[in-house]
Write a structure and sequence with these properties.
The structure is a homodimer. Chain A is mostly helical. In chain A, 73% of the residues lie in helices and 3% in strands.
Amino acid sequence: MKTRILSGLIMLPLLVIVILNGWILYAGSFVISIMAAYEFFRGFRELDIKPSYPIALCSMAALYILGALRHVAASGGGTGLITFESEHWIMLWIFATVLACLLYLFSIEKRKLEDSMVTLTGVFYVGFFCYTIGALALSEVNIMVWLVIITAFGTDICAYFAGVTMGKHKLCPKISPKKTWEGAVGGILGSVILSGIFGLVFAGELLPHCLVIGFLASIVSMFGDLTASIFKRKMGIKDYGNLIPGHGGILDRFDSVLFTGPVIYFYGMLVLS
Amino acid sequence: MKTRILSGLIMLPLLVIVILNGWILYAGSFVISIMAAYEFFRGFRELDIKPSYPIALCSMAALYILGALRHVAASGGGTGLITFESEHWIMLWIFATVLACLLYLFSIEKRKLEDSMVTLTGVFYVGFFCYTIGALALSEVNIMVWLVIITAFGTDICAYFAGVTMGKHKLCPKISPKKTWEGAVGGILGSVILSGIFGLVFAGELLPHCLVIGFLASIVSMFGDLTASIFKRKMGIKDYGNLIPGHGGILDRFDSVLFTGPVIYFYGMLVLS
């Protein structure tokens, strides 16, 4: 009970950051990116793979800085340095990141191909996926950031209770033995209902979109959870970390958020904007 | 001698494609992407790693299709489907590619983490790097595509002759035992001179830029060559393929082009446009 209250207290600043939204959340998303990437890389120690944290850190810092400059330029601030109206900045970021990961191999005797490929995977999976939450926070539809949290945690909690009370048919015993189809359906229903309530109270005219997002994000949320399970299983670890007592590390808590983030970001950019 | 002439004949269609430039070269760049990715993936068989060629193929097709739609939209054609003025399309492509590579792991008993990470590396290193050449071919400065070829092959040939005649000091014996510092300097000089001649004859006012590109691209060209050497050394193979008799596979011939492509593309987009 004591650790549960403690965990709640640790999650509290996060809630404040989401309430403040905008640049604060953008910065918060960067901090979570680098903490999650650190945990992800640490997990590979068990497999004797040594990805480059400095490269990942620089790459993610560059992504957030370029993204911020791009936002300022798009808001009429204008930097004049790079043509931010187009996709060149993010293409340049991809190139620089991949190049850095490849050059990492040049100490050929010290490095394995895996060291470089895990670095790349960490940046694109953990770093880039998390970045979309920050980018959503700077967008016109930044109220949707709430749905990133609501669908991820809503699915998780509702699936747990539905699974415990009604669970019979195993969902994917080889990846995560406790998950059931009944839990999955409960998770989706819970996510749709919670997103609907959110839409009704806070986002009036966007209510139908909230329901669609509640459904889509709930499904990818479970894939996010299972993806993290696969990595941990292959690494031979139970949790990515122990930052939040009783809840594992940042990446254990945010595995679903990493997937709901981009889905809601793209829904916001391509459908709502 | 016979194989050398044959090789020359095989390189001929390539020259025609570069002369035709534009959409033809865009399509040619796609074909080279998928052939090079195939060779790259095949090299990992030796390490018992099985990347997904279908995922890489779909991802690269999506990149070229989205890039084409984006070009049409930017030229005033307009598709109305996606907001192509901004970076969303390429961010969506990153997300979809990474997601597909992660979902590939869901057959958890059949797949290793490496299978997924090599797929990702193949798409971003081979596929995305090659795509920039196609994107350059559709741009306003598509004459610069010539420099992609001139700097890559110019560096290679001039470094070879300078190395053979004057080579004394080893450059990086652990990666590529025959390369020398004298060869490297000769390669850079050759690339700058050839780029200068090209600028003088074909791109009058862009001459100073051609010299800068000749210098920068020559250096990354050697990194491209060495990167391919590292991969082949770690894979335990001598060549990626035997498509071009006496010259190995597509990826053996285009390892430098993969690096000069993006550098000249970004120079063209950020400095010349």
